[in-house]
Amino acid sequence: MSKRKNSSSVPRHKRMARPARLQTAKHWLTSYIGKNIVSGYAKHFAVDLLCSVKELEILGYQFTPEYIEELKRCIESRIKQRKKRKKVSHDKEMNTPFESDDRFFYIAGYTSGGAPYGVTWEEMEFDRSDSSVDSVDYEDEGIPF
């Protein structure tokens, strides 16, 4: 079976605009056997839940205002959870240790031949006499080792 030149891999019922969806939905609703008409419609036609409710209302279904408000809260909660997961994932990426070895403190990259380049351990060392941090004499601290 060969595909036509302009055909898409996405099913037609997921690419429809509202007028075509409403016309097709009349037939689809007669054969729907699921438990939740709103989520079933949303999945079948690839629309969000609020769009699904609006289009089902156009087709004659009725929903309580409480149900619609709960749906809005649920969607907002999902958005917040997604943002939180994304932030945690981003934070984990930022806290990953950088690459180093016995020669380089920080390896910035590799040449086309595979040789590393970056900041060496010698370049990272600083003169302690220039440091404003007071040196600590551990013998005075009473540390047992």
Give me the secondary-structure topology:
Layout: H1 18-31, H2 37-45, H3 49-58, H4 65-94, E1 104-110, E2 116-120, H5 121-124
Antiparallel strand pairs: 1-2
Detailed description of the structure:
It is a single chain. The chain is mainly α and 145 residues long. The chain has 3 domains: 11-63; 64-94; 96-125, no CATH class. Helix content is 46%, strand content 8%. It has 5 helices and 2 strands. It has helices at residues 18-31, 37-45, 49-58, 65-94, 121-124; strands at 104-110, 116-120. It has a two-stranded antiparallel ribbon. A hairpin with a 5-residue loop joins strand 1 (104-110) and strand 2 (116-120). Helix 2 packs across helix 3 (49-58). The radius of gyration is 31 Å and the shape is elongated. The termini are far apart. The model is unreliable at 127-135 (pLDDT under 50).
SS-based class: mainly alpha
Number of separate helices: 5
The fraction of residues in strands falls at: 5-15%
Give the ordered list of helices and strands.
HHHHEEH
* Total strands: 2
Please compute the radius of gyration using only Cα atoms: 31 Å
Task: List the uncertain runs.
Answer: 127-135
Mean of all residue-level pLDDT scores:
82
Lateral arrangement of strands in the main beta sheet: 1-2
Number of domains: 3
Largest sheet: 2 strands, antiparallel
Globular, elongated, flat, extended or rod-shaped: what is the shape? Answer: elongated
User: Whole-Å distance between the termini?
Assistant: 79 Å
Share of helical residues: 40-55%
